[in-house]
Amino acid sequence: MEKNKVLIIGAKGMLGQELMKVFKKDKDYEVFGWDREEIDITNEKEVNSKITKLKPKIIINATGYNAVDKAEEPKEFLLAKKLNGKAPGNLAKLSAKISATFVNYSTDYVFDGQPEIPEPAGCTHSCGTCALHENFVPEIGFDEDAKTNPLSNYGKSKVLGEKEVKKNGKKYYILRLSKLFGKPAKSEAAKRSFFDVMLEAGKKNKEVKVVDEETSCFTYAPDLAKKTKEIIEAKKPYGIYHVVNSDPCTWYEAVLELYKQAKIKTKVIPVSSTEFPRPAERPYYSALINTKLNPMRSWKDALKEYLKK
Fold this sequence. Notes:
Blueprint: E1 4-9, H1 14-24, E2 29-34, H2 44-54, E3 58-61, H3 74-98, E4 101-107, H4 153-168, E5 172-177, E6 180-181, H5 194-204, E7 207-211, E8 219-220, H6 221-233, E9 239-242, H7 251-262, E10 267-271, H8 299-308
């Protein structure tokens, strides 16, 4: 039986390397992993020629510009729009042409941090005698259909990518994630994850200051890679999916849990984001609500697995 050809672009990145592992384990797939040495995704001519020659059934774009603060500089914003906006659109167009399934990744930073607060069913907003709210705990955040309204240039570049993929693609999945963590990438250009940075800080210092704001979900790269394969194989309806680990938290809450699990005694001091001014504005609350898939495990369980490894 002919194997399914899958092309993973950004194969040396934190997510790319996990996608490579997940698909290589399955004998039904013939896996091709390309990184920046093999392909420049901003060069449409090169993309069309190389990928058409390969004829993959599935194209997964695990690349992207992610220097959130740097993207506030005009030159860098142009680069972000090329990598996160135009390039995914071109890949989606080519995928449609060769009838391949296309996967692209997006972010919680496409939202403005001000989600609508849901009301219980039957609420008429006249609360004199209403008992509907008594045991009602709303799930606060942004679902897959929530209106995008990015605060930063990085967020704008990702919204552009979503629009380009929708406009040019046919069989496509846009998977939104947030706060990705996992085994450090092999690619030299990649960023280290927040947990790796904070582990190092905890070992070097007696106390660390951490922002107790920006509530959102963490995403464990191996879980995201497995879920990507599941979505494709289940032939889920094409469109946008939120793929994050359960239990939203702030950066400060995350570090408390990290040090507890890693048995680090460093004191963690909660601070406001004004303590660490950064060029790009971040959403204050950007938890992604998943309404289309089975829920993923808590990020705390994923972190436990990561620390063991």
